[in-house]
Amino acid sequence: MSSSAKRSGVWKYFVEVDKNKSKCNLCGVHLSRGGVGKTATTSTMKKHLQTKHKSEYDKVFGEAELGHYLSVPRAARDANPYKWWVSNKGHYPILGKVAAQFLSTPASSVYSERLFSEAGLIYEAKRSKLDPNRAEKLEILHHNLPLLNFNY
Ligand SMILES: [Zn+2]
């Protein structure tokens, strides 16, 4: 086998049985690679990892995706992020799911109602001269520090 045949990150989880077959190190399943020698591909192995061993798949391809995402030029500041992700979701199947989760509109108004309620607690009578920018920072810290387990 040539060294170029093992470039894909999926080989970390497979051993080559013969020129057309590979074996999963995690569950022992034998897979046909859809060709012989140089025409054999890693697509069935990649699909197996994606469907049977999701966390390992995310490790291998999530890092590659993230690396690629960080290497491409940033979208213009006034670009629509939804449109960018729609046109680029094929390149970033894992990050696309994360983006869809974070860019989507919450289905409930409860959260925004809670924000107004908490802003009312920040703007109490004893803080009547509180700078709006500082109040906004307090609100952001109030919601984001728990996400970091106060480990900042
Ligand atoms: Zn397996």
UniProtKB/TrEMBL annotation:
Keyword Transit peptide: no
GO biological process assignments: post-embryonic development
Record SUPFAM superfamilies: beta-beta-alpha zinc fingers, Ribonuclease H-like
Gene Ontology annotations for the cellular component aspect, listed alphabetically: nucleus
Principal location listed in the UniProt entry: nucleus
Domain BED-type: 5-60
Keyword Ribonucleoprotein carried by entry: no
Annotated compartments: Nucleus
InterPro entries on file: HATC_C_dom, RNaseH-like_sf, Znf_BED, ZnF_BED_domain_contain, Znf_C2H2_sf
Source organism of the structure: Operophtera brumata (Winter moth)
Domain of life: Eukaryota
Protein name in UniProt: Zinc finger BED domain-containing protein 4
SMART domains for the chain: ZnF_BED
GO MF, any single term: DNA binding
Keywords of the record: DNA-binding, Metal-binding, Nucleus, Transcription, Transcription regulation, Zinc, Zinc-finger
